[in-house]
Amino acid sequence: MRTVIPVGVQAMAERGAQWAAWVDGLPRLVSQIVGEWRLTPDGEATHGHCSLVLPVRDTSGRPTVLKLGFPDDESAHEHLALQHWHGDGAAQLVRADPARRALLLERLGTDDLTGLWDVEACGIAGGLMLTLHRPAVPRLRRLSAYVGREADILGRLPRDSPIPHRLVEQATTLVHALTADEGSSSVILHGDLHYGNVLAGERWPWLAIDPKPLAGDRNFEPAPLLWNRWDELAGDVRGGLLRRFDAVVDAGGLDEDRARGWVVVRAVINARWTLDGARGALNPEQRDRVTRFVTIAKAVQR
Ligand SMILES: Nc1ncnc2c1ncn2[C@@H]1O[C@H](COP(=O)(O)OP(=O)(O)O)[C@@H](O)[C@H]1O
Ligand SMILES: [Mg+2]
Question: Does the model's pTM come out above 0.85?
Fold first, then answer.
C-alpha cells in the first residue's frame, strides 16, 4: 500500500534530523500498521502540527483514523489519557502502539471549536474539563515536576532578557506556591486544550483529541484558549482575553485565582521557549510572540 504523505507533513522534515528521520520512515510505518491491524484506507491523509492522520476503517468497518505522531515526550502518554477517559469527553481509543506512537481513534467530524464565537468555544472547553478532570492515573508525567524544571531555567535567565524581570520572578514564585499542595488535588489534565483540539462528534456534541496529559492542578488548563486565535482579539486584546478567561473559569468550575496564576506561569514559560528558539537576537516574529505572552500574563492580572 502506498500512502501519499501530505506536503505539510513532508515540510516537518525541516525541523531537524529527528523530524527528518520520522518523516522518512512514515510510508513504511503506515503500511506496516495498516497491514498488522488489518485497516482499510478510507480517504485522504491529513495532519496536525506534529502528526499524520489517516482515515481508515477497522475490521468491523467502523470509521476510524490512524494517527501517527512524532515521538516527543509531551505526547508519550496520549494513549493513557484516552484509555482512561474511555470516550467520555474525548475521542475513543480503539487500539494503540505507544512505542510506534500509533493510535487508532474513533473518527470524529471535521468541525472544531475554531468555527464558533471564541467566548462560546471557551465555555464548551470549560464544560469538557468537568468530565476530563478525573483523578489521575499512575505513570502520567507530573505537572509539578515539569514546571519545577521550567522554574529552574527561568531562575537562570539574565535580568536583561526580553521578558520583563518582574514577570519572570512572579512566575517562579507562583510555580512554588501553586505546586505546594499538588498531591491533594491531582487530576488528569488534557494539557493542550485549544480550539483545534476539540472536534464535533455524534455521541457528544464536542469531544477532545490530542492530549498532552499531565497529573496535577485542574486550574492549569485554560492558557491555550487565550493564546490561540490571537488575531481575533485585535482592537480590544485585554477585554477579549478576560472574556475568554471568565468563560472558561465559569464553565469549568475553576478557582479564578489559581487559574490566573497558571496563565501567568504558562505565558512566561512559553515566552522563554521563544527565547530558546532564537539563540541570539529575536527576529520580528519571535519578538511578537514574546510580546503576546507578556500581554497575556499582564491582562489576566487585571
Ligand atoms: N479522531 C479524529 N477524527 C477525525 N479527525 C481527527 C481525529 N483526530 C485527529 N484528527 C484530525 O487530525 C488533525 C491532527 O490531529 P491531532 O490529534 O490534533 O494532532 P497534532 O498533535 O498533530 O495536532 C486534527 O486537527 C484533525 O483535523
Ligand atoms: Mg492538535
Answer: yes
Catalytic residues: 192
Q: Specify the residue with its C-alpha closest to ligand 1, atom 8.
A: 209
Q: Which residues pair with 252 in a beta bridge?
A: none
Residue 177 three-state SS = helix
pLDDT tens digits, 34-43: 999 999 999 9
CATH topology of domain 7-106: Phosphorylase Kinase; domain 1 (3.30.200)
C-alpha cell at 52: 499524520
Does 7-106 match 113-299 in CATH topology?
no
Q: Is 12 exposed, middle or buried (0-12, 13-18, 19+ CB in 10 A)?
A: buried
Domain 113-299 has CATH 3.90.1200.10: yes
- Only one residue has cell 471557551, namely 122
Q: Which atom of ligand 1 is nearest to the CA of 50?
A: 22
pLDDT digits (tens, 9 = 90+) for 142-183: 999 999 999 999 999 999 999 999 999 999 999 999 999 866
Q: Which amino acid is at 12?
A: M
Length of the chain, in residues: 302
